[in-house]
Structure formats: C-alpha cells, structure tokens
Amino acid sequence: MRTPLTTPEPTLEPGVWQGLQHDAVQKISYDGILECYEQGNELLGGYDVKYVSVHDPDEYLAIA
Questions:
Q1: pTM, whole model, 2 decimals?
Q2: Element of type H or E holding 36
C-alpha cells in the first residue's frame, strides 16, 4: 500500500529503490487487500480493475 515517504529512503526493501517519492507497507489480510485494491483504483484515476494479485507473500511470511 502506498504511504508517505517519511525517511530518506523507502523502508520497504531499503537499498533497492532509488528516487521514489512514496513508501509502501504490506497489508496481507482480507481488509488490507481490499484497502490496497481501492487505493490502486483511485491512483489509476477511475480505471476499475477487475482482478487482484497478491505478490511477494513469502517476504511477509519471512518477517512474521
């Protein structure tokens, strides 16, 4: 989920991304996935996405 960048570099996968203006957090739950879906549609400017794909759940599980 896109969030404001409050540190010098993104906290999600530090050292990987350069020049980003936003950070991101993983929200791998039913409500979190719906929240990300709604935000994504909003960021796309009205384009209504019909499919959802959860990617990188292994990273989320490794942190847990």
A1: 0.71
A2: helix 30-43
